[in-house]
Amino acid sequence: MYSVKMRSSQNTSHISGAETICDMKDIEKTIQNYFKKGFFHENGEVDFLNLKIEKVTQPIQTFNALNIYENHTLNTLIQQSGVSHAALTKGRHYIQNEINYRGAIILCAKTGRRLDSTKERGVRVTHFAFENHSTSALSERVQDALAIATCISHHSHVKGELCISDDLSYTTGYYATPLGYHRLHHMKATNSREGGRIIFVDDSIHLDSYIAFLEKTPKRIIYNP
Ligand code: COA
């Protein structure tokens, strides 16, 4: 199997990214799709596009995707998942401030104290593939988000994850817990590049091994509700 990744940017600012793990026979079709996705994007004109193909050498871990839910409010979900309002307020500040973190920020679910030391980089979930084995179609965007959310929540110390896309016209965010992926509508104004991903955890988590799992372990996420 091969890990195939794409990222595009303008003036070194990230525009678009995508990745999967596939058989050798599917690489060509995948990079064609990724070229279209990355080169023509509403976030701006692309002046750099990178395609990366790497043989997967570690065993791939398989996970069932979280179930998708609608119609919950963020406040209820936060409360049910054991995240304090103080932590949520701090999380929203990281999403709204002028810094565009390149990955997720990890906060203590009780106090909102930042636990990772990745500064403006953040922690990125990478080396994954999403497989839809259900009859219902999911947009590429939801597939990516569901795959990332499933990986993030696959740890006993994780309470929840709040994500708002930095795409200009996409205002639907989500809050995911180990029990489900909850879509949240109208999370920001349109035409805003504000966005980010916050992971709320119990602060006794072994951060190095959790981050290594998110960033390095090859992961396959199966959607079959
Ligand atoms: N957001 C912003 N910048 C990103 C980025 C992202 N998602 N991914 C990569 N970059 C930029 C950063 O400047 C990064 O340098 P850094 O490690 O110091 O932050 C640089 O590109 C190189 O990153 P690298 O991890 O080597 O890139 P890659 O080509 O191996 O993987 C992605 C690129 C986009 C596939 C991967 O990083 C990623 O984010 N995967 C998650 C899936 C995804 O993005 N889905 C789309 C929407 S949710």
Automatic annotation (TrEMBL):
Its EC number is 6.2.1.14. The keyword DNA-binding does not apply. One of its GO terms (molecular function) is 6-carboxyhexanoate-CoA ligase activity. It catalyses: heptanedioate + ATP + CoA = 6-carboxyhexanoyl-CoA + AMP + diphosphate. Its cofactor is Mg(2+). The keyword Magnesium applies. Keywords: ATP-binding, Biotin biosynthesis, Ligase, Magnesium, Nucleotide-binding. Pathway: Metabolic intermediate metabolism; pimeloyl-CoA biosynthesis; pimeloyl-CoA from pimelate: step 1/1. It is an enzyme of class 6 (ligase). Homodimer. This is 6-carboxyhexanoate--CoA ligase. It comes from Staphylococcus felis. The lineage of its organism: Bacteria, Bacillati, Bacillota, Bacilli, Bacillales.
